[in-house]
Structure formats: structure tokens, C-alpha cells
Amino acid sequence: MNALVKVIAAVATGFLFAGTVGAQTLPGSGKTIRYAQDDSLGGNYVVAQITSQALKKLGYDVRLSTMDTTLFFQAVAQGDMDLATDVTLPQREPGFRAIAQQAAVVGDGMIIGGGINGYLVDRKTALAHNITSLEQMKDPKIAGLFGRDGKAEMISCDPAWSCGVVVDYQLDKFGLKQTVSPVRGKYEALMADVITKVQNGKPAFYYAWSPSWMTNALKPGTDVVWLPTPQDALPPNIPNRGTALVNGVVGCAGGANPCRMAMGSWNYDTVANKAFLAANPAVKALIEQIRFPLATWSEWEGVISKDGGSVSVVKKLSDAWIASNQSQFDQWVATASKAH
């Protein structure tokens, strides 16, 4: 009996020891990650939840905060935040350059193939007046359809967002400042008014991007059309990732293919503090693997545009993705856990 007791005790001790070692060998054991998400709601919030769950599997405690990218850049440079996975590049390139000594871009972006952005008008007005390019807004008669006194009101970006700089630059470069007035304010509220206008058959003119909830609420080719720009044109401090001519854009006015957008492809990139990355190779290895196809982003954005972006909706989407892609999720974690 004594021998049996000794064997059982030895086995029990072994299990306890193995469990302790297992916990201790998790790369994030005892560490907290300060994770930021941008204040622009979308599928990026779903990605933040999926990524947070993977980080927790690596043993990290994750503290998620919401803040504007400009504030995040300051915080990550000072070491007050560790990373964000939804920094829009190249739009945010000027701000990133200012902190490039303290922070780095990790991975190839969260959207496989990248996204697009540009100018849209309601399809009804475009067809009625044969509007097939942004350049036609030089004509006060055309511009006046979207405003009054021969000048269009175009919904631009939130004042804190970098896309507004691009819009202002292009309106000047394309000779549209006399006939187009950009409206900047809280984008979500401004777009709610745009959606109502289009649904009621009234003219609407705005700047947007895809994937996003806006291009699900108002579908290019059905409700609205993209207006091709006359030429590639970006502020000198914002690099263009290739030509702004994009093939296969659904809903490009006049059926143009390729369709010249406001810029080349953009992406949700990950920016992290360099010292944090050096101390946490598992995080770097994890982020380098995480990417999602455009169809997945569109699905998320569609649900958010329909059901809203509450915590419960976002969590339901992230949990559903993990459940449907468990083997891929587990592989990400397993690969990251081996990083040194």
C-alpha cells in the first residue's frame, strides 16, 4: 500500500510540476499588453477582439483602449501604449514618420489585398445627369445639384482623421475649390444624414472607403457610384502605394475599369513600440500571421452597418470567426509561442 501511495504521490507531483512549468513557459505569463483601437468603428474592432483572444492564449493580460491615432502615436512613442492593429497607412504615414525611431510597422496589414477609398455620389443623380467623373464637379450646374448656388457640399472626414488632408489637397489640385465645399465633422453623424438622403432619393456627395460600414449601408453600383479622379495626386508627405488606378472596382461611375480612386490601396497596419517588440517576440510573430480576406471584412462591416457596433455585436462577430476558424487561430498561437 505504501508503495502505491508513493507512486500516486509521485504522479500527482509530476502533473502539478508540469502544469506549473506550462504556465511559466507561456511567453506572456505575468505581462500586460496596452492595446489601442482607433475611434473609427468598423471591422477593425472585430480584429482587435480576435487578436486580444490570441494574445490571452499566449498568456498575456490585455488592456484595450479606444483613442484617436494621433494620440496613439504620442502614447506609443512615449512607451505608454504598446500597439495598435488599425493604423491606416499610407494615410497616417506623416504621423508615423515622426515616431519611427520609437515604433515600427509589423506585418503586411490586416486586409489581404488592401482597401480602396474615394468619392461617391448617389446613383440616381449620377445616371440622371451623366456624372461619370469627379472632374465634372467643376461645372457649377453639376456641383449645384449637391448643394446650392452652384457649389456642392461634400461630406469629408472627421476633423481628427488624416483623410481630410488628402481631400483638401485633391480639391485644390483638381481645381474644385470654387465649386466643392468639404464638410468636416463627426463622420458617423454626417453619414447618417447621407444615408437618409439617398434612401429618400435625394442627391448626396461624400468621401468614403472600403471595406467599411458605409459601403455596406450604401452599396456601390446599387445605391451610389464611385467617381474616378482625373489623376493621381497626394500630398508630398503621403506616399502612394502604387497607382490609384484599381481594377475591378464595383460601382465605378460609367463602368470605368480600371477606376482611378483617391489613392492606391490602403491597409490597417500594426504599429508597435520597438522596445516592446524586442521584449515580446511572440507578439511580433503573432501579428505577422494575422490577416483577413476582403470578403470577411465586408461581412463584418455589413453586420455592423445593420446591427450597430456595440460591444456585444463585435464580440459575437469575433467569437463566431474564431469558432469557424479554430484550427487557423490555434496555429497562429502555436507558431507565435515558439518565437524567440
UniProtKB/TrEMBL annotation:
One of its GO terms (cellular component) is ATP-binding cassette (ABC) transporter complex. The keyword Disulfide bond does not apply. GO terms for molecular function: transmembrane transporter activity. Residues 39-321 form the ABC-type glycine betaine transport system substrate-binding domain. Residues 1-23 form the signal peptide. Keywords: Signal. NCBIfam families: PRK11119.1. This is Glycine betaine/proline transport system substrate-binding protein.
